[in-house]
Amino acid sequence: MKKLILSTMLFVSLVVNAQHTNEAIASGYWNGYNTWYGNLFYNNAATDVTVIDNGVTVVQNIPTVYTKEITFYGNGEIILRGNNEIKFLGSAANVTGSNIIDDVAVDFSNAITTKTLSGFLQGLTNYPTFPTVAVTAPLKPGLMRQWDTIKYHASNAINDGVKVHMCAGDHYQRSSHNYIAPALTPPSAYLDNLDLLLDWGYNNGLPRPNIVWECWNEPNFYKFWTPGDVEVTKTENRHLSLENDVSYWAPKKKEEFFETYKVFYHRVYDKLGASAKVAGPSIGTFNAQYLKEFFDYCLLNDLEVNVVTWHEIDYAFGDHLGDRTKIPYIPISSIKGHVDYIRTNFMNNPAYSKLKIETIEINEIVNYRYRTNPAAGASYLDALERAGVASAAKACWEEPGTPAHCCNACDSDTFNHLFVHNTHEPTAAYWLYKYYADGVAGRVSTVKANEDSAVLSSKNVPAFAASANHPQISVGQVLFGYYSFGEENTPAPAAGVFDFTLNNISAIVGSSTTCYITIKKIANTNAESASLPVTDAVYSNYPVSIVYGTVFLQLPVEKDALYQLIISQVPIQL
């Protein structure tokens, strides 16, 4: 089965015309029947791209075919007869093959119910100066993770009814600047601080809605929990001489946290009643052993864990945390296995029913290295959706090139690196979350071959027609891309192609036999650079024939970029 127009490069020595002319020339595609089909229109850009699959022989049956690129796979070939010829316009007349990044099938008639995984860690310190409701509301966050009561109200302002994880440990630490394990018996600054926070939450008998109470942030990380025992601080806390190691939890620290969670749990229920929801353990990385130990402790002590939380940060390549040889690489695609483990062994296990686990919520995702990488960010969202988690929150990090604790994106006007500091221009991460929010309610079934790529498909996405007055219409959308997955010695290819089979296009265009394809690229930029989606020179309201309800595409991609594929019944406003 042949794919439609597209991708890279050539094979045999054919006629090459490197000049770009403005004369009207025919364009089209080869289909599975090895026949050239003209698109019945004239394309002045002369930038068609064509693919010949493995084992396919095309016999050209019209005098001249104009195209930009042709890719051959395996022993695919073209046979020219008579005076027939292929002319290449532009500069892309290279002879090479392409890396197949993913083979994707989308069914636009098969709707999938999913919860939005748009969410953010803090980020509202400068609200309402910036970010404003106008720029944050379109992101439709389902979760905001906060510690400050003012930020609770700000979170509801940008999305009324949003779930808020209120981290009591952060409230205590930021109020007292104390990162030593808290005293659990009076006099206790921790208990006094917790009581004040819970009194606010109780609100004179009118408990504030949509709050999940969280005990502590990353209790296994040395910065956020220093053991009370000085000797432990000198030894176990600096495990393997790597004090930054988020994959290690010293036994003394673990014991102290478990005891703190018990006191926290009883305080919450004494103050707020049985309807209150509690979360934990919010450790820095997934660790099956540590999670089981936590659940077993809670079971033994009659404690609930209504919301199970941990962080999926993917500490690859060391980042800014130190020697990565002490921190095993955790691919983004492993998230589903982590979630399945918790769901099978604890959430759905009758032996742990007393914990009353209701949801799994990953309240920090996206590491420092990928903070504005749109393809990596999309891979997180794709993996989390496929795992079926209830909510997630994008992490925030200190801005590069600034003193520690000086310019943290949690507290700056960048809103978790979605905007450039001071200028407030959108970064690549903003467009990822904007396009994701546009499509999540219309999610449709997507089957892919590469678990490390990102593919998020939707229908009923709002757009505006290019006709007079630009009426609003619904279009299909596919967000796709791939990031620098894998270990350093097995890097992802710099470029490649995605094979797409888009089925049941009628769910978007009705009975039309033609649809229009538009592709926008979101380049990977750093946190200090603005990023604007760039419309592809070829796929800009490009008409494509629908064959038996299906469209085949093979699209060239670059590593770490995210692409928005739009399928519309009529040309759209670009």
Describe this structure as you would to a colleague:
With 574 residues, this protein is of the alpha/beta class. It has three domains: 26-96, no CATH class; 104-111 and 443-568, Sandwich (Immunoglobulin-like); 144-149 and 158-399, TIM Barrel. The protein contains eleven helices and 26 strands. It has helices at residues 133-136, 149-158, 168-176, 189-202, 230-234, 251-272, 288-300, 335-347, 374-387, 428-439, 506-509; strands at residues 26-30, 36-42, 49-52, 57-59, 64-67, 69-72, 77-79, 85-88, 100-111, 119-121, 143-146, 163-167, 211-214, 277-283, 307-312, 359-365, 391-394, 444-448, 453-464, 472-482, 495-503, 514-522, 534-535, 542-545, 551-558, 562-568. The strands form seven sheets. Strands 10-11-12-13-14-15-16-17 form an eight-stranded parallel beta sheet. Strands 19, 20, 22, 23, 24 and 26 form a six-stranded antiparallel beta sheet that branches. The chain is elongated, with a radius of gyration of 27 Å.
Descriptive tags:
single chain, 574 residues, alpha/beta, Immunoglobulin-like, TIM Barrel, eight-stranded parallel beta sheet, six-stranded antiparallel beta sheet, 26 strands, elongated, disordered N terminus
The structural class is alpha/beta
Low-confidence stretches: 1-49, 89-97, 230-244, 317-326
Question: How widely separated are the two ends?
Answer: 32 Å
Number of domains: 3
Strand segment tally: 26
CATH architecture of the largest domain: Alpha-Beta Barrel
Q: Could you describe the largest sheet, including whether it forms a barrel?
A: 8 strands, parallel
Shape: elongated
In DSSP terms (H or I, runs of 4 or more residues), the helix count works out at: 11
CATH-defined topology of the largest domain: TIM Barrel
Q: Percent of residues in helical segments?
A: 10-25%
Q: What is the residue-mean pLDDT, rounded to a whole number?
A: 80
CATH class of the largest domain: Alpha Beta
Strand content: 25-35%
Backbone CA Rg = 27 Å
Side-by-side strand order of the widest sheet? 10-11-12-13-14-15-16-17
